[in-house]
Design a protein that fits this description.
The chain is mainly α and 455 residues long. 70% of the residues lie in helices and 0% in strands.
């Protein structure tokens, strides 16, 4: 009896901590701008309607995945036809081209689309524009908690928005680094503000808080478990200015990587938990193709998604999986070989770093201990959540003698973090390991939900 109701107890310490801080701060969350949240919710409603249209048209039956496809499609179309970008197209031209392609998809599948959703799309778009016209990006003093945003994420998003993708790749601040994340930041700004000059607004990224809650809501588990996870999710993210900054209140790469990696990884390995029905076979390969483009997000994630696709190929022995999943890499090779000017190479793990990889005997294990220590000092609340999750995992492992693929990918990411920070990156500041550990925090919550339902 107690085990079946235990998910009601897990959120209590997190809710208490949040409201205690909320009351102590005069009923305010100081790092969150209220108007930005309202505007981002209107934009979320617009994306939600887009998700319905795409889900119905492609018979995906999942709004989160459909929205992910929509946001990525602008980059995929541009990157696939980068040759034309080099000569006469711009970011804005490609933006409208991609919109036209989506309209074409909807027209082909018009019999599957509810006309009321088209009206809802227009209404939510109009409301978003109405709110954005009365919004000033300078009305809220946004604090940059990391120099990464001012050094790379915001400037490169601005460069894409005001020029083109090919120009940005050739003038990349970090040579060879994938620009999918920056491109989506530019797309969000275009859809909400459509100004001539790019400037960061929290409204463009606050939407990922709502998208995270939508992701939890869509999972095929009982509502009390979803509510438990949602309460912890909101309490943790809103309570911490750093976690808010990292996952929905800045241009940091984790904002988009967290959302996209989680939904596409779960599509690959956990479809029964995500989807009401099986996705159509032809559209499955389309989604796998988009999954491969996650290579252009961040280190670790770029390789983890390719590993996941390769494992799926090994399991199903379907060569189309390999071709679809690695299609983005093929296009990347061709673009750098024939389109992009300059001697630019992959920016994630260069040859000098690869040559530095040594055996396990040369690891600096003190760094691993320091990472754990720093993690706890930096974020005790998230540490408590991970402790709860670890206890549940151990309990269920003893009972069922198995671990989910999502749990294994989290452990693999941890192993990579610990290995790199105790070998190749041992001289880097260890606090940044915190970000790599939590890069896809939504996946942690999926594992929490998946394990709690087994209790």
């Amino acid at each position: 009896m107690i085990k079946s109701k235990i998910h009601y107890l897990f959120p209590l310490p997190f809710i208490y901590n949040f409201f205690n801080n909320f009351l102590n701060n005069n009923l305010k969350v100081e790092h969150i701008d209220t108007y930005s949240i309202i505007l981002s919710f209107a934009y979320f409603a617009f994306l939600l309607t887009i998700g319905h249209l795409i889900s119905d048209s492609l018979e995906i039956n999942n709004l989160s995945l459909s929205i992910g496809l929509f946001l990525m499609s602008f980059f995929v179309v541009n990157f696939f036809t980068l040759y034309f970008d080099k000569f006469f197209l711009s970011f804005h031209n490609y933006f409208y081209l991609t919109i036209v392609l989506w309209i074409f998809v909807f027209l082909i599948n018009y019999k599957k689309i509810n006309i009321n959703k088209l009206f809802t799309l227009l209404i939510t778009f109009f409301i978003t524009k109405l709110l954005s016209n009365n919004y000033s990006t300078m009305s809220f003093q946004h604090k940059e908690l990391s120099t990464d945003t001012t050094f790379f994420w915001t400037p490169m998003s601005k460069m894409i928005y005001e020029n083109s993708l090919v120009y940005s790749l050739e003038n990349n601040i970090i040579s060879g680094y994938g620009l999918l994340i920056n491109y989506i930041h530019a797309v969000n700004f275009k859809l909400i503000f459509d100004s001539e000059v790019f400037s960061y607004s929290p409204a463009t990224t606050n939407v990922f808080l709502f998208l995270g809650l939508l992701f939890i809501y869509e999972l095929r588990v009982k509502k009390p478990i979803k509510l438990s996870a949602s309460l912890i999710y909101v309490s943790i993210l809103l309570n911490s200015d750093w976690l808010s900054f990292l996952f929905f209140n800045s241009t940091m790469g984790e904002v988009i990587t967290n959302y996209l990696f989680t939904i596409f990884f779960l599509f690959i390995f956990e479809s029964k938990t995500m989807f009401e029905d099986n996705i159509q076979l032809r559209n499955r390969y389309l989604v796998l193709t988009f999954s491969g483009f996650l290579y252009f997000t961040k280190p670790f994630v770029s390789y983890l998604i390719l590993i996941a696709i390769f494992i799926l190929f090994i399991i199903e022995k379907d060569i189309r999986i390999l071709f679809s999943g690695f299609f983005g890499l093929l296009i990347n090779f061709l673009n750098y070989r024939f389109v992009i000017s300059g001697n630019i190479q992959d920016g994630y793990l260069n040859s000098s770093e690869i040559s530095s990889i040594n055996s396990l005997t040369n690891l600096n294990f003190d760094n691993i201990f320091t990472i754990f220590k720093n993690f706890y000092i930096l974020d005790k609340v998230t540490s408590l959540f991970i402790f709860f999750l670890l206890v549940i995992l151990i309990f269920n492992f003893i009972k069922f003698r198995s671990l989910s693929k999502s749990t294994l990918i989290i452990f693999l990411n941890l192993v990579l973090v610990f290995y790199l920070y105790s070998s190749i990156w041992e001289s880097k500041e260890l606090e940044s390991a915190y970000r790599y550990i939590l890069t896809f925090i939504n996946l942690y919550f999926f594992v929490y939900i998946d394990e709690v339902k087994k209790l």
